[in-house]
Task: structure prediction
Amino acid sequence: MTILQSAPTNRRSNPNEWWEATKTAICGLLIAAGVHTFVAEVRYIPSESMFPTLQVGDRLIVEKLSYRPHPPQRGDIVVFKAPPELKAINLNDDLIKRVIGLPGDVVAVSNGEVYINGQAIAEPYMQVSANYGYGPVKIPADSYFVLGDNRNHSYDSHLWGFLPREAIIGRAIFRFSPLNHSQFF
Result:
């Protein structure tokens, strides 16, 4: 019969235990930093530019992997670094908008409708139509035309131009807060 004894309570910590705990903590931090840098991150919505889809205070998960093998698609909600036109006026914050036009498309906004290659597009996420005109303009290669869902209160491509692909950080995939508005995009 084997009897197990509990460890003595007044024993000193082994220096190897501290070293192992330190290595574990460092590895955990490196993994968390890697996930944040390359896989996904959490974002907070600070403005009404994407209303009604996103509201001030919403928290989202933005994934960063899908645009490596595949380009953004029309309708995707993307987070991006401020393009050069915005940095030139000292707007350096990351932004979130919806992809409307793809490279090579001809985009126009007229009479409250968005036209891609001469055809009005369906936008079921909209509550209020745009009260401005734009284009028609052809979107350059490796660039996108992005608009906020709250068209009349969004600082977006109709004001500052096209979004270069390299500025895109990732795609909003899930709103997790507030819980009563949780949804996948």
